[in-house]
Design brief:
The chain is mostly beta strands and about 260 residues long. It has one domain: YVTN repeat-like/Quinoprotein amine dehydrogenase (Methylamine Dehydrogenase, Chain H), CATH 2.130.10.10. It is about 0% helix and about 50% strand. It contains no helices and 22 strands. It has strands at about 20-25, 30-35, 40-45, 50-55, 60-65, 70-75, 80-85, 90-95, 105-110, 115-120, 125-130, 135-140, 150-155, 160-165, 170-175, 180-185, 190-195, 200-205, 210-215, 220-225, 240-245, 250-255.
Amino acid sequence: DETNYGIPQRALRGHSHFVSDVVISSDGQFALSGSWDGTLRLWDLTTGTTTRRFVGHTKDVLSVAFSSDNRQIVSGSRDKTIKLWNTLGVCKYTVQDESHSEWVSCVRFSPNSSNPIIVSCGWDKLVKVWNLANCKLKTNHIGHTGYLNTVTVSPDGSLCASGGKDGQAMLWDLNEGKHLYTLDGGDVINALCFSPNRYWLCAATGPSIKIWDLEGKIIVDELKQEVISTSSKAEPPQCTSLAWSADGQVRAWGPSRGRG
């Protein structure tokens, strides 16, 4: 419905601090949020109520994710741990051995059921791949020179991309456990996501969105928000989050507020 496009349908209230990450279950029935209050919440999107509250992290929760079957949940925190949960709010495992030495900024499941893994990144400049069955480390991906904000897994689970302070989007082969190539974002990378139906990677780089064709390793589009400001010192808003629609036709992005 064109008239309702971009209009909030419901507000979900419950966290006592900033909400750092939100994901929606693949069936569209639930949302999962992580907050600086140190908790996760599972929300029923029909009623707008909290169905489960996940308590266990000792510091801010920075990232949350659903497994492809919506039966497992993973979270990353400033307490430097990764936690694996069931949907009843029970922590099944806390990854501490060989975990990140700094904040865990992003965690994601692979959608490939034949290679069940979790991918994480952190402020220690590392991308880590974990065996979902026993939560043991499989691979350390080393190469970034600054802290990492984001990691994303391709729709077929064969590769992942990471980005952060150094402005480089690095592509990693999850089957072979090796670095493939690097794309220059030209600015801090805040978020990354793969197209669901094309061999494209979308990056939130500073105030713009860059879209790479991964076959040619070229930028096919760059999107910038039009900003009208009365101040010559105004800073443009930073693009901090990204999402593709399921059919790959629509991209959504969340800007921060510019200052000035």
